[in-house]
Amino acid sequence: MSDATSQAGTAAPFGDESAPPIGLHGLLWSALAVAVMIAAIVSEIPWFLNFVHVMAGILWTGIDLFMGFVVGPILKVVSLDTRRAIISRLMPRMLFLMPTLAIVTGTSGWYLAKLLGFLDLAYPQFWWVVAALTIIVLLTIQGIGVLLPTNLRVYFELRKPHPDGGRIGGWMRKYVIVTALQGTMQIAMIVIMARFVTGL
């Protein structure tokens, strides 16, 4: 096992004060983002809906790439105390942020495709739509079915007086792998979106 396991038994107690509580302000920002998305969908204004879709997608992709290919490798080499400090403050923010970006990106993208007539395309052009829908479904399932529960497991473990470093290390390795996979799929999605923009 990694150094996280060997240090877990000797590390100083890691109490509640090191893992800040989940703030409701994150939920308020999520509600605001969903409200803007709903306004864009109801308005049926192409540029507004496209803006919401692109901005949410950029943030989602950028954060996934940063987490998977920058933060992940760093967490593997820093000390256990540093790793705990970073994770305990990162997880509460990611808890609301990533599911919201996934929901806003996918939902606004569907309505944008419908508004622009992409859902009415004939084959073989429609295969691009199928590819985009497949990727967004996989990303959403991973985000809500894997990353969100992992977020919660790590967070609540960190809230314990003596968290299990080995369990946290295992969960975080899984988390980083999935975020890296998401980032890779989102690069493929960018390729598909470039095809949409330039014409099928």
The whole-angstrom Rg is 19 Å
Q: How much is the average pLDDT?
A: 81
Q: How many β-strand runs?
A: 0
Helix/strand order, N-terminal first: HHHHHH
**What distance lies between the first and last C-alpha atoms, to the nearest angstrom?**
49 Å
Major sheet, described briefly? Answer: none
Domain count, please report it.
1
Give start-end ranges of low-pLDDT stretches.
1-17
Helix content: over 70%
The percentage of residues in β strands lies in under 5%
Q: Please tell me what the overall shape is.
A: elongated
Q: What structural class is derived from the secondary structure elements?
A: mainly alpha
If helices are DSSP runs of H or I spanning 4 or more residues, what is the number of helices?
6
Descriptive overview:
The protein has 200 residues and is an all-alpha fold. It has one domain (46-198). The chain is built from six helices and no strands. The longest helix is centred in the middle third of the chain and has 36 residues, at 80-115.
